[in-house]
Amino acid sequence: MSSTSEELRASFRLAMRRFPAAVSVITSADETRRHGMTATAVTSLSLDPPSLIACINRSTLLHDIMLTGRHFCVNVLRKDQAELSSAFSGAVPPEARFALGSWLTSSHGLNYLADAQLNVFCRKVAAVPYGTHTIFIGEAEMVHVRDPIEPLIYQDATYCVSVARDEPAGARAASH
């Protein structure tokens, strides 16, 4: 690899570290296994049909399960759930992770966090390999949303919280 490519990779890595993202625990199950993993590479895709994408490293157990499983759930964490994020990032062995937090099981056998900021239950409709990851496209089948809006954010290897700023009247409507 050329030095320009290494420089680009280093700059890109730094830029992505500074890119703030909501912290999610993605859960999935197949015929014999269940697993959950912390992720920040999750975003909406479309409103019609309601869908999102989750980018999962191909070297992970979750990736293997999501390839064979038909459903997955995105659990966006609340600002007070950083410990769960760390546990599902590898601080706790996979078989012990669901002992932490308030987990329930959906009709599709997916574990979901009862007190997450939100849960999006998805049917996997596509898996697109790209580089070191696979882009999983999920069509939302059910969504749970909880107030107040206090998501856990990850930026530059640090947990953060979002703070709403005061806006002049009409500013929000004008920006959309």
Structure described in brief:
This protein is α+β, with helices and mostly antiparallel strands. Helices cover 21% and strands 42% of the residues.
Topology:
Blueprint: H1 3-17, E1 21-22, E2 24-29, E3 34-39, E4 42-47, E5 50-57, H2 61-68, E6 71-76, H3 82-91, E7 103-105, E8 111-113, E9 118-130, E10 133-145, E11 152-155, E12 158-161, H4 171-174
Q: How many strand segments?
A: 12
Rounded mean pLDDT is: 93
What kind of sheet is the major sheet?
7 strands, antiparallel
Query: SSE order, as H and E?
Result: HEEEEEHEHEEEEEEH
Instruction: Please give the share of residues in helix.
Output: 10-25%
Describe this structure in words.
By secondary structure, the protein is α+β, with helices and mostly antiparallel strands. It is built from four helices and twelve strands; from the N terminus they run H-E-E-E-E-E-H-E-H-E-E-E-E-E-E-H. It has helices at 3-17, 61-68, 82-91, 171-174, and strands at 21-22, 24-29, 34-39, 42-47, 50-57, 71-76, 103-105, 111-113, 118-130, 133-145, 152-155, 158-161. A seven-stranded antiparallel β-sheet has the order 3-2-6-9-10-5-4. A hairpin with a 5-residue loop joins strand 7 and strand 8. The longest helix is centred in the N-terminal third of the chain and has 15 residues, at 3-17. It is globular, with a radius of gyration of 17 Å. The mean pLDDT is 93.
